Amino acid sequence: MGRAAPTPRIVITVAVAARQAEPDLAARKTALYAAAVTRHGGAAIVVDAETAPGERARVLGSMDGLLLSGGADIDPARYGHPSRGSVSVEVERDHLEAEAWGVAQARGLPVLGICRGLQAINVFSGGAILQHVEGHAGPAWGTGPAATHPLRLVPGTQLATLLGPDNVLEVNAYHHQGIRAVDLARGLRPAAWADSVAGPLVEGLEATSGRFVVGVQCHPERTESTPAAFERLFAAFVDAARTVDRAAG
After folding, report:
1. What is the helix (H) or strand (E) element at residue 133, kind and residue range?
2. What ranges do the domains of the chain cover?
3. Residue in 206, 177, 146, 212 with CA at minimum distance from that of residue 8
4. 0.85 cut: is pTM over it?
5. What pLDDT sits at residue 144?
6. Which of 115, 136, 175, 176 is the catalytic position?
7. For 9-242, which CATH superfamily applies?
8. Is 221 a catalytic residue?
9. Which residues contact 188 (CB under 8 A, 6 or more apart)?
């Protein structure tokens, strides 16, 4: 019999639940990210800004993939802008995720970004963020039906290949910030678009290098308001982490 495929170790960066206005809700959100990883065969390792430095270094050094989850706005100083609509900034989380991103970049690990995570990929790659967009936040999760809108996939991209064959999907919207074409970092390309009052927004992005670095603005871990096709995105991310050369790390 052949050797069993390794269980990839996926680090998930999240907000500190105890610091949130509703800690129990924050913990439920974290559990959804972990479940999305584990149901596709990954080992979910959750870290936040209160993870002890030694433990943080250990898990980042041994991870096979990185999932940057949703949450608070990124400090505009990270992309050289004054604050013009950013709220609930968590500077310590920015530091954590910048460190995690740096490790993933150095080791060539797969990265999946969700909502804030998509924006973090762009910022850490040298891009910027439009700090407020009307009409995309919708009701907070757990307070009512999700706001939704069409997402247009870009044919030929990795994301479109994973989520197709339909080129337009109806996705949830829980964000008030966005990325325009002018904000997108070099080395990234648009993989999906959505309309807004501020013009077209990049709501799916990916690396141009061919390495698995993918971000989506919607929240596919919230399966009650997400097309089933997004399960293939999670599966592909975990599979990419499974093939990481651990000896090289």
Report:
1. none
2. 9-242
3. 212
4. yes
5. 72
6. 115
7. Class I glutamine amidotransferase (GATase) domain (3.40.50.880)
8. yes
9. 121, 122, 125, 127, 205, 206, 207, 208, 213
Longest dimension (CA), the chain: 59
Record the tokens describing residue 156, joined without a space: 């030929």
Q: Where are the beta strands (DSSP E) in the chain?
A: 9-13, 43-47, 65-68, 111-114, 147-153, 168-173, 188-194, 201-207, 213-216
pLDDT digits (tens, 9 = 90+) for 141-200: 666 788 899 999 999 999 999 999 999 999 999 989 999 999 999 999 999 999 999 999
Question: Residue type for 42, please?
Answer: G
Average pLDDT value for residue range 69-98: 95
Q: Taking Cα atoms as reference points, which of 29, 98, 96, 34 lies closest to residue 234?
A: 34
Type of residue found at 98: A
* Residue 115 known to be catalytic: yes
CA distance 85 to 36: 31
Which residue bears the tokens 């929240």? 219
Sequence-distant (6+) residues with CB within 8 A of 157 are 189, 190, 191, 192, 204, 206
